Amino acid sequence: xxxxxxxxxxxxxxxxxxxxxxxxxxxxxxxxxxxxxxxxxxxxxxxxxxxxxxxxxxxxxxxxxxxxxxxxxxxxxxxxxxxxxxxxxxxxxxxxxxxxxxxxxxxxxxxxxxxxxxxxxxxxxxxxxxxxxxxxxxxxxxxxxxxxxxxxxxx
Length: 155
Known about the structure:
Layout: E1 10-15, E2 22-25, E3 30-33, E4 42-47, H1 60-72, H2 79-93, E5 104-107, E6 110-113, H3 116-130, H4 144-151
Antiparallel strand pairs: 1-4, 2-3, 5-6
Helix pairs in contact: 1-2, 1-4, 3-4
């Protein structure tokens, strides 16, 4: 959550891994190392509401929306282009990429999605795990986050 900034401010949030960063691969339920120093990052962009506050998820889908916004506006972000890109990706996956937090249950190590946002991340991870998309520059053992970073041009 961001608070106290001027209403309408466009914010770009970026997450990059540090040594020892791990995440769970939704396809295999295995905890994997995030590739440090490979240029891997996830981003989200949004405008602050009328009170100067916002909350946002940062997922492969929000990163895809940032890339879409950049591609649609010569690499530059503005509020209208970002809102349109966030809306397009949200429509495509059937969930709000900024507001619907992916949720999962862990039943003795068997991780399962409990909502649409989680199910969509798991689907991407399974596609990456199976090598279902050709033209992907990473290896085929990618988490959904890595898949979005390396393979979103192939989708």
